[in-house]
What does this fold into?
Amino acid sequence: MTTPTRIRQKIANIYLNEETHATLKALAAHQETTIQGTAAHWLEEIQPIMQEMVEAFDAIKSGQNTQNVLQNFMAKSLHMAADSLTTEEETNATDNRKNN
It folds into this structure.
């Protein structure tokens, strides 16, 4: 049985300022991966938040109350962050290799 391959979409080159590039390069080195891999990973991690932003912009453009839309966006974002932290804490609680 073969493992299904993930379909990945290639995007055009992006240009970063020197500080952002240096930070991304250092992070990639620490993770022993490429800059492209690190950037792709970060973008994939924040995709749910980006999707919430798109929905918030769409709601505002459709005439919904901006303050309410932004408040709901922040609430959803905080819930996502809290859920992520809870999941990570549960995973680390069972990981005997966790460094304190």
Notes: The chain has a mean pLDDT of 87.
